[in-house]
Design brief:
Strand content: 25-35%
Order of helices and strands: EEEEEEEEEEEEEEEEEEEEE
Structural class: mainly beta
Shape: globular
Strand order of the largest sheet: 5-6-7-8
Amino acid sequence: MRLCIPAGAALFCSIATAGAQSAPPAVEWSAYGRSAGGDRFSPADEINRGNVKSLVPAWTYRTGEIDAKTRRPAKLEATPLMVDGALFLSTPLGKVVALDPLTGKEKWKFQADVDASVGWGDFANRGVSTWVDPSLPRNAACRRRIFANTIDGRIFALDSRTGTKCPFGRAGYVDLRSGLHNRPFETAEYQLTSPPAVIRGMIVTGSSVADNNRTNAASGEVRAYDARTGTLRWIWDPVPRDSTDPAWNTWRGAMGHTTGAANAWSVIAADSARGLVFIPTSSP
């Protein structure tokens, strides 16, 4: 078993020198927090307190973005996913890669066009999400999808085996900038830094909105999209916009109902059994 940690613009993986000669059964890590609920618990026990001091480098994967010219430093904060015998990793500049977990060799690479010259306030990427379409046969294209978010507010659906775009939204992606109650006044005001939650055939995503620029900043709607088609399923806005909303009267002042942000920039937890998502909101 390997331990992989992102650092700078590289992914470092280590392996314990002691242990059995044959590889143990793979323990998958299928969401940012391993489970959809984000418990971050792994039953893997080959690396433990007794042998962690024996870890030695097994391989290093470099993203190639360390020398990218950006107005603000780009931050690799991704937790790689480990599913179906591959590691899946995304980067701040829109690169998505599938890696062989034993060697670190690229299986495929996808590059989204991201404008690195924009002054993104939080130029970070925290990884990808994955979903298996139960209606498709095992070897069908896009049966397992990798959902990759970009800093400029898009979510791509990629075939986990090839990295090619799946039929999804418009040309393989959905654009979160479309349909906002309050539109961004500049490109850098609205971002996407965290992977979407996956629940009951849907992906649920928040956004990252720049703080303290203006009262009516870009709105922070949380939206759910059909994981197969990219069709919008529902919208929830932390700021009540409808006078029939019980919370309407708690937002007071001349701009109370045009207030922006209150967005969910961090990772959303999901509980499929109860049909719930838990959304951490930011400041309005």
